[in-house]
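Why should sequence recovery work at all? Because a backbone constrains its sequence more than one might expect. Tight turns favour small or flexible residues, buried strands favour hydrophobic ones, and helices have their own preferences. The token representation captures these environments compactly. In the example below, the structure is given first.
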């Protein structure tokens, strides 16, 4: 045969070959599919686990056996490539929701390498079932493997948007994909919103899915990068470690995603050695099974708040995460926005559920067809037996059953294969019952296939069940860049201040030394100069390195770094909090609470109608200047008071009519924000709750100070207030008459505390709590402040 030679330019040949190679790498190696969110090697690993029967609850097998299965049958690209991909799916610090349950050394956040595959074992994690359970129901297409000897799924029938849940990372030829992980509960909430609103915008989705949620926690500074990534598929996020100053040390408890802890420690040590970081005496890693903890000991007299900003600036404690939402869609690479990714998943899920339903319908119809034949044969049992006995061969019997009984070839074949035990009355009843069940299922399947709304409802129910089963709390805190305490502010010394907040939202920040103590019964001094028609709502003491949680009567909460409020004169008008917070004009501030951090503790909330609620303080870590809902409050009710607690204490609710109730805090179960709460006190007609006090565990020395609208008050021993069950009517706490007016509030005071009373006119009087006499619950009390006829007391705080 003559040789066939075709001339070609080497430039053209190299160009085409490179393009073919690039397309192969993009599609078959590095970029995830938008439908199941998996790269080919990850998909083949999960399928390999299934083929080996390594399902959740089954005994694990050696990783080397799994790698051999995957490499030999589906992915011939080297054992280490397969093993590294499997390790990534098992690491809880790399994957937000691990798909592989690994046993043995699978590496660490320090950057330690995993043990060799001959030493480790693995099986599928429970959530991996959501990729594999529907494979046998013709939900996806199968393709030949690399040598044509087997088949593998083109894509797995994922039941949730895994692409965004666990994110993805990969480098291909000329392209990079880097998709951050997200919180599953938030992600499914956004997916359900897109299910109902196909034209949903990023602005509509952001309240539901505020941003990525990394497995290592940490902080995302600024929302502009999140918005850009969600709108265009490209964006840059600033990730920051979670660190705080504790006495004369700085403690790091969470680090940025994809940063090795050892790299952070080595970098800090190097900066100390070359003189870039001063004031650090020691550095040690105290991490254990309970969590990550790196302690930086400071030299004596060094202010940690001055060192922390430089640590963030000079070390990997702060890094940039570049988002590239590059995926494979319709066979090619595409950069998609958040709504486009969710719509692509829903389109795939609709197709998957439709194919699954068609398969189930076909199976049910085939089974019903056979059972109908059984039923017909049982109804003509004598004739069937005679036909079978007289037939010379099975084919003749089959033909006679079809001709004389009316059975189809499939029914006749099934009847011929029936066991004698199936001729009993019990078996006949079972056939009829199964036919009835199948008729119901067939009707349901046909309804789903005939009604897109029914199909979407089925998808909704399944997504909600996945969120309930696998959802967890957010780990990463997101703060507005404008909210974040600027480095210059952090570098400034800590200042103790008093915050005066008016009913209309004006806040005045003043150094504590600006207030002078006065005796009980005096005229008081002006603490803020309210505008006409305004009055002082609350006073709190704080320091400039804290956050403020601002709660309104509508049940919303806002977060504001106190460093953004510049100290001013004691009697100035101050600035309106609406300059910093997106509060409604009809919202009134009910509580302003300074917090140092959000790890541990609870928020106790009480409403005017006696409803109480308890949330983990961590639920408020993602509060921001736009506000989040703290409590689901009916239109006729209003939030009255909020307290930060540490658990194990007691609650005291006080009403305008002078009644109080005291009960254990634990009687209010912890719920996720927002929730409706439970009854704390049952009110008499016309009464309302005016205040709430939290009593720490074993609190016996302090007393309750009651203050009325016209300035009367008294102290009461805690032992005089009986411990009751939540939801009762309480007892008398102070006897009221026409001169003192209704009760304004009740606060907890120690013998050496000072109290500041505030009036609607903006006057403040400060006096030792010990000057107020202690009376029984039934006494009226004494005058605490001289109130002008047109004025009234509105608040009392411990200074």
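From this structural description, the recovered sequence reads:
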């Amino acid at each position: 045969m003559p040789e066939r030679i075709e001339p070609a330019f080497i430039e053209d040949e190299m160009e085409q070959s490179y393009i073919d190679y690039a397309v192969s790498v993009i599609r078959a190696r590095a970029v995830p599919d938008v439908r199941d969110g998996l790269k080919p090697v990850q998909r083949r690993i999960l399928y390999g686990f299934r083929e080996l029967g390594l399902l959740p609850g089954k005994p694990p097998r050696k990783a080397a056996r799994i790698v051999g299965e995957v490499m030999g049958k589906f992915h011939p690209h080297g054992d280490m490539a397969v093993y590294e991909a499997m390790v990534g799916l098992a690491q809880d610090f790399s994957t937000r929701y691990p798909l592989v349950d690994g046993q043995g050394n699978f590496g660490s956040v320090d950057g330690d390498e995993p043990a060799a595959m001959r030493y480790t074992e693995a099986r599928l994690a429970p959530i991996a079932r959501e990729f594999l359970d529907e494979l046998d129901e013709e939900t996806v297409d199968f393709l030949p493997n690399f040598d044509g000897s087997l088949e593998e799924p083109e894509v797995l029938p994922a039941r949730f948007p895994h692409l965004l849940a666990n994110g993805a990372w990969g480098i291909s030829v000329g392209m990079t994909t880097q998709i951050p992980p997200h919180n599953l509960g938030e992600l499914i909430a956004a997916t359900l919103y897109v299910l109902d609103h196909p034209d949903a915008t990023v602005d509509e989705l952001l309240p539901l899915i505020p941003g990525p949620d990394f497995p290592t926690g940490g902080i995302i500074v600024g929302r502009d990068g999140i918005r850009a990534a969600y709108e265009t598929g490209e964006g840059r996020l600033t990730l920051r470690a979670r660190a705080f100053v504790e006495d004369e040390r700085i403690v790091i408890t969470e680090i940025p995603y994809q940063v090795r802890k050892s790299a952070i420690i080595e970098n800090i040590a190097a900066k100390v050695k070359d003189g870039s970081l001063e004031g650090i005496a020691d550095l040690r890693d105290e991490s254990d099974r309970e969590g990550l903890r790196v302690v930086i000991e400071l030299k004596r007299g060094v202010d940690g708040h001055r060192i922390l900003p430089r640590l963030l600036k000079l070390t990997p404690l702060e890094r940039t995460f570049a988002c590239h939402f590059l995926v494979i869609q319709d066979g090619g690479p595409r950069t998609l926005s958040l709504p486009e990714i969710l719509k692509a998943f829903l389109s795939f899920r609709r197709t998957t559920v439709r194919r699954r339903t068609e398969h189930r319908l076909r199976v049910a119809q085939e089974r019903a067809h056979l059972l109908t034949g059984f039923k017909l044969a049982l109804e003509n049992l004598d004739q069937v037996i005679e036909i079978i006995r007289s037939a010379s061969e099975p084919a003749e019997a089959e033909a006679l059953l079809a001709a004389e009984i009316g059975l189809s070839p499939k029914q006749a074949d099934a009847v011929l294969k029936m066991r004698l035990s199936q001729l009993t009355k019990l078996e006949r009843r079972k056939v009829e019952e199964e036919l009835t069940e199948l008729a119901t299922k067939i009707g349901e399947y046909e309804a789903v296939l005939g009604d897109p709304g029914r199909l979407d409802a089925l998808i909704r129910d399944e997504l909600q069940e996945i969120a309930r089963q696998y959802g967890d709390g957010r780990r990463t805190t997101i703060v507005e860049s404008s909210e974040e305490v600027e480095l210059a502010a952090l570098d400034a010394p800590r200042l103790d201040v008093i915050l005066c907040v008016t009913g209309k939202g004006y806040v005045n920040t003043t150094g504590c030394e600006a207030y002078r103590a006065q005796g009980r019964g005096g005229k008081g001094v002006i603490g803020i100069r309210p505008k006409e028609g305004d009055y002082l709502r609350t006073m709190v003491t704080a320091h400039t390195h804290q956050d403020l949680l601002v709660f309104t009567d509508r049940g919303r909460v806002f977060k504001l770094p106190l460093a953004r409020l510049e100290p001013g004169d004691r009697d100035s008008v101050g600035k309106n909090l609406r300059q910093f917070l997106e509060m409604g004009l009809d919202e009134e501030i009910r509580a302003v609470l300074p917090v140092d951090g959000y790890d541990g503790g609870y928020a106790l909330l009480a409403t005017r109608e006696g409803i109480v609620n308890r949330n983990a303080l961590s639920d408020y870590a993602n509060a921001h200047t736009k506000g989040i809902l703290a409590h689901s409050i009916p239109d006729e009710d209003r939030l009255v008071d909020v307290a930060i607690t540490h658990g194990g204490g007691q609650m005291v609710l006080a009403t305008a009519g002078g009644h109080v109730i005291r009960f254990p805090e634990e009687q209010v179960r912890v719920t996720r924000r927002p929730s409706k709460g439970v009854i704390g006190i049952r009110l008499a007609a016309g009464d309302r709750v005016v205040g709430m006090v939290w009593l720490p565990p074993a609190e016996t020395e302090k007393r309750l100070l009651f203050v009325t609208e016209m300035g009367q008050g008294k102290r009461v021993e805690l032992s005089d207030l009986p411990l009751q069950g939540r939801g009762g009517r309480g007892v008398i706490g102070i006897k009221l008459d026409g001169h003192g007016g209704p009760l304004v509030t009740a606060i907890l005071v120690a013998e050496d505390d000072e109290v500041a009373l505030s009036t609607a006119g903006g006057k403040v009087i400060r006096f030792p709590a010990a000057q107020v006499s202690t009376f029984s619950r039934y006494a009226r009390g004494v005058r605490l402040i001289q109130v002008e006829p047109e004025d009234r007391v509105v608040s009392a705080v411990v200074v």
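A few observations help interpret the result. The chain has four domains: 38-157, 242-316, 353-470, 494-798.
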